[in-house]
Structure formats: structure tokens, C-alpha cells
Amino acid sequence: MRRERNFGLDLVRAIAITLVVLSHATFFFVQDSENLIVVLIRTMGAVGVDLFFVLSGFLIGGILLKEIEQKRTKFSNLLTFWKRRWWRTLPNYFLILLINIGILYVFSKDLPDTIGSYFVFLQNFSDPQSEFFTESWSLSIEEYAYLILPFLLFCGFFVFKDRENSVFLWATLAVILMGFLLKIQFYMNTDSLSQKNWSSMFRKVVIYRLDAIYIGFLLVYLMRHWPDFFQRFKLGFLLLGGSVFAATHLLIYIANIQPETHLYFFVFMYLPLISMSCGLLFPYAIGMKRSGTFNGLIYFVSTRSYAIYLVNFSAILLCFYYFVDLNSASLMMKIGLCTIYLLLTLSISNLVYTYFEKPILNYRDRKLR
GO MF terms on file (predicted)? Predict the structure, then answer.
């Protein structure tokens, strides 16, 4: 199974989840902070999620293009695609959702009034979600991305027979355009936002973020149709992506660009620039060879990344707050607790992957080839 995986994409996945977990680890030391190092680490954690989005779009778009190549463009094929996605994403999600509900019950905390919406991924569809199970916001975006564009694609395949590749491109561009129009509506009806409010009201809301995944669709389409071009200039794309990423954040720092003063930048420019700079890494990453030294570690982290993402914050980190007053804890105690947090995250996610996620995926692969 390990030989079937792409090492470069596994590395991307491992980097993304590492950025997320390290950003969460800073909460053992400070809550809200303007310290440059803390802000940088937490910014990179947010970038890790965007990297996941582009990677998901790249992989799912590749699966759909393979369906097109093999002439599997009937609605029965769409249903099989959805079933495979749901077997991949839903069991882990519902398991950790129930665990989070149980944690609140044990510590006599009230469930949010919107708890029912979490079972149908509506907790952040068009409005900010509650503070409960906060990391679930990205799962809602991914689930609707898997529903909306693939459905439109297969409708297009039915209408425009023998033009499936054109349908894939134009439907993707059309949905991205629809998202842009929704962003215009958001911008026109919003006066000013703090960084935190921008994140909850815009960055983590489904209808404004689907384009992050669909950029991955466009990328895999372009790389499939012009493979020689992307292979030839893969290092150039890597350097360009890194330059765009660095220049964007350097501009924000030097010019002190904030949502309160430059809302248009954070609505229309910042997130697409981050997604595109992440995407430019893929032509280089996809051709990377395995590393004998770190291959096992990268494989371990990559395969357990979904479980790590779901368990690390709400199910593990926040539990420390019920037992320890971190504000009054010594530095050595905070370091010790952070170390325990990292070990628990790896151990519990490994248990979830080994005894829950992997058996379900094996069952899926037997039933839905």
C-alpha cells in the first residue's frame, strides 16, 4: 500500500498537519498574543488548513478526471464517488463529534443550541459556527465541495456528451465565479471586521471558501493537459509559489494591513493568493522521490493526518483547560503539558487510524471498487 502512495503528496499532507498542530501547541503558553513569533506560528497553522484544501481539490479533481478518461460519467458513477468519499470522511467525523459531546457532558458543560447542525455540516454554511468542535469548520467546506461541483459536473456530462473535459473546466470556473459574487455581497454588506471576526465570519464559512478546494481542481486539470510544461518548470513554480507566499505576508507586516483597514484585501486577495501559492508547490512535490531517512515518519504522519486533525484540539488540548490553570502554570509545567499533548495526539490518532479508520477504508475498498 505504501508503494502506491505519492511520496511528495504525503510530504505535503504531513507538513500541513504539522503546521496545524504546532499552531495549537502555542495555546499552552499564551492565549491572545501579538508576539511576532506566536503570530507567525498561528498564521502558518491557518496556512496548513489551506494546504489541505488545495491538496483535497487536487486529489478529488484527479479522481474525477480519471472517471472522465474511463467514460464513467453516469449518475451511478457519481453516487459511487460520493459513497467512497462519505466512507472516507464521515465515520471519523461522527466518532470525534460524539466524543466531543461526551466530553462536554462529563464536565457539565452546555451543548450549543446549534448542535443538530453539526450532524449535517450546516454549523458554518453561511454564518459563523459556535466555539464547540471548532476544527469542524473545514470539514463542512470539504463536504460541500465534494457535493456541489461534482453534481454540476455530472449534470454537464449528461447534457454535453463527448465534451466532458470542457465541462470539467468551465463548471469549475463557473463555481469559482459564483463564490466571487458571494464575496462581493459579503464585502458590500460589511463595514469593518477585526482579525478574529474576519476569521469566524468569512475564512471559516462554507459559501466563501469553496474556491480554496476548487483551485486544486483547476491545478490538476492544467497539470493533466500540459504535463511536460509543468514538469519542465516545476522548480520555477516552487520558487514562484514561495515568493508569492513570502511577499504577501511581508506586505501585511510592513504595511500593517488588517481587516479593519483593508477589508477588500482579506476578502478578495489574501486567501486566493495563499491557495495559489500552495498550489504552485504541487508540480515539484508530485515528482519527489522517497526519502530513506524520513519516509517512515512521513508515511505515519500523513496516513494519520485526518485523525490528528480531528482529535488534537477540541478532544485533547481543550481538556487540559478543565484540569490545569495554564495562566498560573510555570514555564516548565507548560512545556511538560505541551509535550504530553503532542504525545497524546500522536497516540490517540494512531489508535483511531489503526482500529477504526483503516478497517472502514478496507471495507469501503472491498465493497466499492
Answer: acyltransferase activity
